[in-house]
Amino acid sequence: MTTRPARIRSIVALSVLAIVGAAVHASAQTDLQAQVTPVLEPLVEDLAVEVAADGVVTLGGSVPSVWAKDRAIRRAIDVDGVDSIVSELTIMRAESDAALADAVADRIRGYVHYSIFDNVDVHVKDGFVTLVGHVREGVGQRDLTETVAQVHGTQGVADRIEALPAGDDRVRARIARLIYRHPQFQKYLFRRHPPIRIIVHQADVTLVGEVGSKLEKVLASHLALGAFGVLNVRNQLRIETASGD
């Protein structure tokens, strides 16, 4: 039969073990928090990191874009000891959808592989960006989408871009030479972003962008249709109302 003093000693021992166990868990949580925090501080403003005993980490704070949010979550989950992530991160908002659309369009035009043979339209609603258009194979469509996701205020990106076959490169080059070497269009070669975009899919050509007059719009179609290998030209050129850059 267990005596009363023995039972008391057992209870005390169990209590000590519980306290020690809790202290160990608390120490492990503190250590994990200390590992996660410096990894995320460059990406997250007002960072808050909470660690549960089971290795579940809750992240709070603000990030500039959906790309930064995804990157922060990936960095946190890669830390040893982190079992899963609960994200309470918020993405900062752009000044307006129009301002975000302009910023995204600038980023696309500046993308290293984007040329006069590609065309991507930008649609923005409540900070969510939809990309619609055509790019050549090999442009790096995934990289382009990721570049857009990094723009400040982007809440999400939907990729509706279609890839154009690489076999049409010779036709593209012929049309570009005919248009941009013509005296009427040589002035556009000095622009940082030449305004006439030439989208080729097999024998079908679409001209997109802006020109200075109705005469230039008609002339561009005429020149494109004269290129060997072209059967049809869709002219979607607009008449610009102000000088381009």
Strand order of the largest sheet: 1-2-3
Helix-strand string: HEEHEHEEHEHEEHE
Kindly identify the CATH topology of the largest domain.
Answer: Alpha-Beta Plaits
Q: Which ranges are low-confidence, i.e. pLDDT below 50, for 5 or more consecutive residues?
A: 12-26
Strand content: 25-35%
Rounded mean pLDDT is: 88
Number of structurally distinct domains = 3
CATH class of the largest domain: Alpha Beta
Largest sheet composition? 3 strands, mixed
Structural class: alpha/beta
The residue fraction in helices comes out at 25-40%
- Gyration radius (Cα, Å) is 29 Å
Cα-to-Cα separation, first versus last residue: 96 Å
Number of strands: 9
User: Shape, please?
Assistant: elongated
- Work out the helix count: 6
CATH A-level architecture of the largest domain: 2-Layer Sandwich
Your description of this structure?
The protein is an alpha/beta fold. The protein folds into three domains: 4-91, Alpha-Beta Plaits (2-Layer Sandwich), CATH 3.30.70; 97-164, Histidine-containing Protein, Chain: A (2-Layer Sandwich); 167-239, Histidine-containing Protein, Chain: A (2-Layer Sandwich). 39% of the residues lie in helices and 29% in strands. It is built from six helices and nine strands. It has helices at 4-40, 66-77, 97-109, 141-149, 169-180, 214-225, and strands at residues 45-51, 56-63, 84-91, 119-125, 128-136, 156-164, 196-201, 204-211, 232-239. The strands form three sheets. A three-stranded mixed beta sheet has the order 1-2-3, covered by helices on one side. Strands 4-5-6 form a three-stranded mixed beta sheet, covered by helices on one side. Helix 5 (169-180) packs across helix 6 (214-225). The protein is elongated, with a radius of gyration of 29 Å. It starts with a helix and ends in a 6-residue tail after the last strand. The model is unreliable at 12-26 (pLDDT under 50).
